[in-house]
Design a protein that fits this description.
By secondary structure, the chain is an alpha/beta fold. It is 41% helix and 11% strand. The strands form 3 sheets. It has a 7-stranded parallel β-sheet with strand order 3-4-2-5-6-1-7. Strand 10, helix 8 and strand 11 form a beta-alpha-beta unit. Helix 1 crosses helix 2 and helix 28 packs across helix 30.
Length: 682
């Protein structure tokens, strides 16, 4: 039965913000505060005043969030029509960004859900260019991407502003895993994709984790409440599933390999599944009031992601106890996981989530014990096994942070507020005394320079200081924009210097890409000996009929192949050819790798297989048989370069496939001789 939306008190302020006459509005409402209902109510009010509007809603790029938004609409009485099918004539279309080719209309209003992940992606930006909306509303629980940018107007609503009775009690536990993640993090504070999750470490880690959970709740039987396990990659998730089967706990695995449409997540939400194992799913926007445990095995140290995952178990009444279990690296003496989790908890307050831009990590304030010191932390007698060293040991941690932050000016003698850089300094990880500079001081220093490169080169210390604190754009506003701006006129001027497309591509690839990206390509190459003029559909089909593989056709008759693609005849011309799609499994990758004696040979001979093995963490297993010789170096002379070049049919393909030989030929002036055999476009 459908119901009317009745806004809560704080949602009226959000509605008033959405009615603001500003092009780009960011509605930064914390998870479980009713972002979706507020936006649906706003859309409904719009259509009561103007029934001719067109609205496009872009959920995050998963079926889970698409279904979530659609289900919410199905539950409510609204005045407008809606559909997930863009061919249906209705007021509101709900579409995943990756289906942008299905968009045919212009829209008055664009709504982007989970905008901190989606909005700046090329796909969404292309949709904005294509639909040209008059107004954009960006929904997010973690607005760090938009903080400090003048193009956006932001309205914040934090957990600490909600009624305490609408938030369940939450306990956060940190458990040391057997994974050695130390030194294996990228710039986004995520575990590197190349990290190998092996069976032994996974089993030992899960032994600790589930024994801890069972002991915590004094459970004698092997039973746990509704649990979501978030893994880092597919391999780790399969190992977790294998362990739970042996352990005797019934579980279901949902990843891109076995559940492409996320149907199992819908079953989990309907309580048909008790333990669900996922990979990068359900950690954004997943709304499940019955979820009790969330086990985070991803290893992330990104406070925004930790905050989002924590929010999955912050739905329900205050009389319900819920749990968030995080795994930390083996021997995490730097307390990285606790510091990141501590900061994530600080984001439950408006003053902190409205100032954290994702870059000024070290300057953020966290809550630590008043007697915190390196000696105190490393004295194991102070702590029970698996007990936190920085985080408070409580069953209602959200209330603790709410009360402690509100009484910030009162010194209670037990806890204190401390900047992360000072915590790291106390642990001996960073210099303790760093000269502090304000934004105004740095802006004054930046005025001495005309460009970023000049400032970076002549005053690296202050440049880095501004960059690390996220102030670089503001400090460099007066500087000249050195980045080349591509217009239709500049692309046409560049193209006019060349007679063929290939010459233009080789000489000015950036202009070619810009013309294609903006739809100017055909106009720019109109004067050239274009493939479009000399190849008809019949000629393309006749040429293609001689080959059974697409790659063979491309190598033998590149001109006709390219013409078919540019004119939209490619599918018709290649309909008779074999489908060379390969399903990359561990066994397949190992079989391919067995043909090669070195990683370099494997990489160059079958890049796709090498890349898939790397992405899934199989690379070490695939190259066990290979000879590793760090002293090996190829020697390039003219004959060698000519021989290598003979394997390719364009300069760009040679450059991408074997940069070392290509660069040696270029530096020694051998390119022309090496490329004699390349075919020229007529």
């Amino acid at each position: 039965m459908k119901t009317d939306i009745i806004l809560r008190d704080y949602q009226h302020d959000c509605l008033q913000f959405l009615e603001t006459d500003f092009e780009k509005l960011v509605l930064a409402m914390c998870p479980s505060s009713g972002k979706t209902e507020t936006v649906i109510y706003y859309i409904d009010q719009l259509f009561k005043n103007n029934n001719n509007l067109k609205v496009l809603i872009l959920p995050h790029s998963t079926n889970v969030l698409l279904n979530n938004f659609y289900d919410r609409l199905e539950e409510r009485n609204v005045e407008f029509t809606y559909s997930t099918n863009t061919s249906v004539d209705c007021n509101v279309h709900i579409l995943l960004p990756q289906n942008k080719n299905k968009i045919n209309d212009k829209y008055d209003l664009l709504i982007v859900d989970e905008a901190h992940e989606n909005y700046f992606a090329k796909t969404v930006q292309n949709i904005i260019s294509k639909t040209n909306p008059k107004k954009q509303i960006l929904l997010t629980g973690t607005p760090y991407q938009f903080i400090g940018k003048d193009d956006f107007k932001i309205h914040f609503l934090s957990f600490n502003e909600l009624n305490k009775n609408t938030i369940p009690k939450l306990r956060v536990d940190i458990i040391e895993s057997n994974y050695n993640w130390n030194g294996n993090y990228n710039k986004l504070k995520e575990v590197k994709k190349a990290f190998n999750f092996n069976d032994v470490d996974t089993k030992a880690t899960l032994d600790k984790t589930f024994q801890f959970i069972l002991n915590r709740n004094n459970i004698k039987k092997k039973e746990v409440s509704k649990t979501l396990v978030i893994c880092n990659n597919i391999k780790q998730s399969e190992l977790v599933k294998k362990y739970l089967d042996v352990f005797g706990l019934s579980s279901v695995l949902s990843n891109s390999k076995n559940d492409a449409k996320s149907l199992l997540i819908q079953d989990f939400k309907r309580n048909k599944i008790n333990i669900l194992i996922v990979v990068n799913r359900a950690r954004l926007g997943y709304d499940d009031i019955d979820l009790i445990n969330l086990i985070d095995m991803s290893g992330t140290l990104n406070p925004n992601l930790i905050y989002q995952m924590m929010a999955r178990v912050l739905r329900g009444a205050n009389n319900v106890q819920k749990y968030y279990v995080r795994l930390t690296s083996k021997k995490d003496d730097s307390l990285n996981s606790e510091i990141a989790t501590n900061l994530a908890l600080m984001l439950t307050d408006k003053s902190y989530i409205s100032s954290f831009n994702g870059k000024n990590f070290d300057l953020q304030t966290i809550i630590v014990p008043n007697n915190f010191s390196k000696k105190y932390i490393r004295t194991s007698s102070n702590f029970l096994k698996n007990s936190p060293k920085l985080l408070i040991d409580t069953y209602d941690i959200i209330s603790f942070y709410r009360d402690t932050i509100s009484d910030m000016d009162k010194e209670n003698g037990v806890y204190k507020f401390c900047k992360i850089k000072d915590v790291l300094a106390e642990l001996g990880l960073k210099k303790k005394f760093v000269e502090e500079k304000s934004l105004e001081e740095l802006k004054k220093i930046a005025l001495n320079y005309t460009g970023r490169f000049e400032w970076q080169k002549k005053d690296t210390k202050n440049y880095s200081y501004a960059k690390n604190r996220g102030w670089l754009d503001e400090c460099c506003k007066h500087m000249k924009q050195l980045r080349r701006v591509y217009t239709l006129e500049s692309c046409k001027e560049s193209a006019s210097k060349y007679k063929t497309i290939r010459d233009w591509d080789n000489a000015d690839t950036n202009s070619v890409c810009a013309s294609r990206r903006n739809g100017w390509y055909k106009e720019c190459i109109a004067h050239m000996d274009s493939l479009l003029v000399f190849r008809t559909l019949e000629q393309c089909k006749e040429s293609a009929s001689k080959y059974t593989l697409k790659e063979d056709w491309k190598r033998a008759d590149y001109n006709t192949y390219q013409s078919s693609r540019m004119n939209g005849w490619y599918e018709e011309c290649t309909a008779h050819m074999k489908n060379t799609f390969v399903k990359y499994t561990l066994e397949y990758c190992m079989k391919v790798a067995s043909k090669y004696t070195s990683s370099a040979e494997f990489y160059k001979s079958d890049y796709n297989c090498f890349q898939r093995a790397y992405m899934n963490g199989w690379l070490e297993e695939c190259r066990k048989h290979m000879i590793i010789n760090h002293q090996y170096r190829r020697k390039f002379d003219l004959d060698t370069c000519i021989k290598i070049a003979s394997n390719f049919y364009t300069k760009s393909l040679w450059r991408r496939s074997d940069a070392n030989s290509y660069n040696r030929a270029r530096k020694n002036g051998w390119l022309e001789e090496c490329c004699k055999h390349f075919k020229k476009i007529k």
